[in-house]
């Protein structure tokens, strides 16, 4: 089953049985933003020039999430840094997250459960994974890349870098010693992988922006 970067990121962020997200809302939102931009980079829709994101292909794809971001960037009055777009998309990611989850439901991978409290004033949603095969395969693949030196593909590098920025690697590598080693290897992988200069630059910019956004959000919530 073909899944894109942001669909895989969402699935890796979920507790398969409880349907709850395994990271805080801010990290999830900025992670989604990073995953969408990584997908755009992989599709050669965007480029990085002088540290600013440039939309090089505005042709729509019939994917609601990708096309929504293309339109968002296209309608911007000027070229902006990756950091701006991580925050822009991240702070408005509710709609994108809903679209991604609905698409995963249509594909039969998850179900969407709604529990209402206080006469419908409070609604809590859960997203249990019905078809765990895509998640199990992706998890196994990522672990083999990190722990068994299996040759990585571009999309796996994108996912690992994003998971590392959002503190999601602990889901893949539960053992503390294994987790520390994995984080070091992932950083080396993102630096040494042979990918195009454009994608490499975009990856580094996105990874840094997501890390800064999630760290800033954590510090802000702690101080409050």
Describe this structure in words.
A hairpin with a 4-residue loop joins β4 and β5. About 60% of the residues lie in helices and about 10% in strands. The termini are far apart. The protein has a three-stranded antiparallel sheet. A two-stranded antiparallel ribbon has the order 4-5. The protein has about 220 residues and is mainly alpha-helical. The chain has a single domain, classed as yeast vps74-n-term truncation variant domain like (yeast vps74-n-term truncation variant fold). The relative contact order is 0.18. It is globular and about 50 Å long. The mean pLDDT is about 85.
Low-confidence stretches: none
Order of helices and strands: HHEEHEHHEEHHHHH
| Count of helical stretches | 10
Assembly of the depicted chains: single chain
Strand adjacency order, main sheet: 1-2-3
What is the CATH architecture assignment?
A: Orthogonal Bundle
- Give the proportion of residues in helices: 55-70%
In short:
By secondary structure, the protein is mainly alpha-helical.
SSE map:
Elements: H1 5-12, H2 25-42, E1 46-49, E2 52-55, H3 64-74, E3 80-81, H4 82-91, H5 93-106, E4 113-117, E5 122-126, H6 133-147, H7 154-165, H8 169-172, H9 176-192, H10 197-223
Antiparallel strand pairs: 1-2, 2-3, 4-5
Helix pairs in contact: 1-2, 2-3, 2-4, 2-5, 2-7, 2-10, 4-10, 7-9, 7-10
Overview features:
two-stranded antiparallel ribbon; yeast vps74-n-term truncation variant fold; three-stranded antiparallel β-sheet; single chain; mainly alpha; 224 residues; 9% strand
